[in-house]
Specification:
Structural class: alpha+beta
CATH superfamily: RelE-like
Strand content: 15-25%
Number of domains: 1
Order of helices and strands: HEHHEEEEH
Shape: globular
CATH architecture: 2-Layer Sandwich
Distance between the termini: 51 Å
Number of helices: 4
Number of strands: 5
Helix content: 40-55%
CATH topology: YaeB-like fold
Radius of gyration: 17 Å
Largest sheet: 5 strands, mixed
Low-confidence stretches: 14-18
């Protein structure tokens, strides 16, 4: 394996540092992080990749708006043997907020999952107004 030296090494380091500076941090609300950790490895990997795109201001590969959750809420759709969903808000400059994550077992998104994400969205908006 070739060792990076000189301008190549510092250029790569600079690129990595710049990339990390451009990324919004993620704040996991409720049990959303634990829910993603329960996904199979391939689904977790895809969720991580898609969230990285969101952190960098890009759109995930497969997503849809979730106006029923709240303005600016979106759903990342992951197919990895089964269907997995991550509901998030990225409309704020400082952070990506993950509202909820779940294993989708029916064609329609269960009301309890939408309701939980909407509740966390409302709590987030209340918290932001209090600052």
């Amino acid at each position: 394996m070739a060792k990076l030296t000189g301008n190549t090494a510092s250029g790569l380091t600079g690129h990595i540092q710049t990339d990390m500076l451009r990324r919004k941090p993620i704040r996991w609300l409720g049990d959303s992080l634990n829910r993603v950790r329960e996904f199979p490895q391939d689904a977790r990997h895809e969720v991580g990749t898609e969230l990285r795109h969101v952190q960098q201001g890009e759109q995930p590969a497969d997503w849809k708006p979730m106006a029923t959750v709240g303005p600016g809420a979106n759903e990342i759709r992951v197919s990895a043997g089964r269907e997995y969903r991550v509901l998030y808000v990225a409309k704020f400059a400082e952070t990506v907020y993950v509202l909820h994550a779940f294993d989708k077992k029916t064609r329609r998104t269960p009301k309890r999952d939408i309701d939980l994400a909407a509740k966390r969205y409302r709590q987030l908006m209340t918290e932001r107004r209090m600052k």
